Amino acid sequence: VVSTQSTGLFTLPMGRNRPKKPHKGNKEKSKAWRTRNRTRDIDQIYEDLKPENAEKIRQLPADEELPGSGQFYCIPCARYMVDQKTLEAHNKSKVHKQRLKVLQEEPYDPIKHG
């Protein structure tokens, strides 16, 4: 039994009219969803925090494609901010502080330990 809603001229079925998981068997789409928001790994960020690399990152030219033209970048979180005020608010946030805590210890290196 399908419930319907009458609008006067014709009757509309109520409920979902599209499939719930349209990309369920599609490997390309599912991989795209998994990797779309992928951020830099902890070991890559650890390398970026070294003074010589951090200075290079801070001196990057403006890029109109990035938020805030790429001028407001949080190195520990690998995120671009829209403006200085947003970057300062981010630096006080719980997410940023947790990332700093993770980066205090040196990441595992299989070459050193293997």
Describe the protein's topology.
Layout: E1 4-6, E2 11-13, H1 27-35, H2 42-48, H3 51-58, E3 73-74, E4 79-80, H4 84-91, H5 94-103, H6 110-113
Antiparallel strand pairs: 1-2, 3-4
In words, what does this structure look like?
The protein is mainly alpha-helical and 114 residues long. 40% of the residues lie in helices and 9% in strands. It has 6 helices and 4 strands; from the N terminus they run ββαααββααα. It has helices at residues 27-35, 42-48, 51-58, 84-91, 94-103, 110-113; strands at residues 4-6, 11-13, 73-74, 79-80. A hairpin with a 4-residue loop joins strand 3 (73-74) and strand 4. It is elongated, with a radius of gyration of 23 Å. It starts with a strand and ends with a helix. The model has no long low-confidence stretch (mean pLDDT 82).
